[in-house]
Amino acid sequence: VPWAFDxxxxxxxxxxxxxxxxxxxxxxxxxxxxxxxxxxxxxxHRFAHLSMEAGLxxxxxxxxxxxxxxxxxxxxxxxxxxxxxxxxxRFNTPVVVSMRGSDINLYPWRDAATLRLTRRVLHQADAxxxxxxxxxxxxxxxxxxxxxxxxxxxxxxxxxxxxxxHHREAYRAQMGIRTDPVCLAHVGNLLATKGxxxxxxxx
Length: 203
Fold this sequence. Notes:
The protein has eight helices and six strands. The longest helix is centred in the first third of the chain and has 19 residues, at 48-66. The protein has helices at 12-19, 48-66, 77-91, 102-105, 112-124, 133-143, 165-175, 196-201; strands at 23-26, 29-32, 72-75, 95-99, 127-130, 149-151. Helix 2 (48-66) crosses helix 3 and helix 3 crosses helix 5 (112-124). 43% of the residues lie in helices and 12% in strands. The chain is an alpha/beta fold. Strand 5 (127-130), helix 6 (133-143) and strand 6 (149-151) form a beta-alpha-beta unit.
């Protein structure tokens, strides 16, 4: 988590970061939220893995001394995948990198340094995952050669998210939406890069 202090409402993002605890238990799993230096602006993205490594050093020492993890799983190619390669260098632990979207479609094209860093992570990771086949194809084009990438689509907990027709009708009534038209719900930023317009065009 980027280091931040409570601005008392002047910056919603900083206030959200400052409110994150340093440690929590989620579903019985001990979770640490280490702080690292992260100044504002996209320009720092190419250096973020170095700052993360400094912020995580002592925590990683403790974790590997007590648990000896079998793998390091990095969610995003940069900056976290780049950090994971440095962790592998220190602890000789295999690295699995998951491509999520912007780490392939957006970040590499910001500057040459991030492009080089992205290619290095894709070349050197022990295993690669992508949330879609299209993303895997773009990653292969980015490095200019074939890569072994397993596609693992993002799922959800079906105990909490499942079709319930009577709930659907109730929500439509609550929102003032008629029962006959197609209704789409989007969770995320309303950006062209998210494919929202493509989705609407399909209908």
